[in-house]
Amino acid sequence: MLIRRIILLALFVGVVSGCYLPTDFKADLRIKPDGNYNFQYQGMLVYVPLLEKIDKDELSRDGLTKYVAAVKQDLQRDRNFTEIQYVDNAAFRVRYKKFGNILQEKTFNFVRQSARLVSFARHPNGTISITGDKPNTQIAEELAKRGIVMRGTLRIQTEAQVVKHNADEVKTAAASVYVWNIDGLKKPSPALVLTARPR
To answer: 173, 159, 167, 161: which is closest to 189 by C-alpha?
Structure first.
């Protein structure tokens, strides 16, 4: 029993140190000038270390089951995941929803700091920066050969004053919507800076 626990712990540590690639996703962020936000993600997360093991045929059926369980356990540490379902080929279908206030939290990272896909932070000058991350280029190129590409849509809606951004499209209204259509790694990562107005 002790040996089994040690093996599972080692597996879990290995899982946590890896990276996730988002694909076939819709990510929506609603952020107000006072820092209140609502972030939602619906789509796939491909766990790269598991994909590598599957490609190399390193896992038995039982080994794959345990590895998938460890990845789920890793994601479930964040209770804002409302769905985590293993599909196939290291891909997990997930739903995520979080409410908060960035002026109180300082930073927010999805999935987490060690594997950031979307992050935002407040700064001493009163601005909030929102950025999208992407995987190492070499890793991304290898994944593209397998037909796995970072692909999806990121939308940010806000009434706050936007200082700068690199959105593909802006829908102007009382609460403007900034849209990024992500398909691969050729374009710069999404970035937007807005001015906060604390209550």
So the answer is: 167
3-class secondary-structure state, position 71: helix
Task: Give pLDDT tens digits for 35-46.
Answer: 999 999 999 999
> Where residue 119 sits, what CATH number does that domain have?
2.60.40
Q: Which domain holds residue 58?
A: 2-195
Cβ neighbours for 101, distance < 8 A, ≥ 6 positions apart:
34, 35, 36, 37
pLDDT number for residue 133: 78
Q: What angle do CA 45, 48, 49 make, to 5 degrees?
A: 135
Integer angstrom CA distances of residue 68 from 4, 72, 168? 16, 6, 36
Please tell me the total count of domains within the chain: 1
Chain segment 42-87, per-residue pLDDT in tens:
999 999 999 999 999 999 999 999 999 999 999 999 999 999 999 9
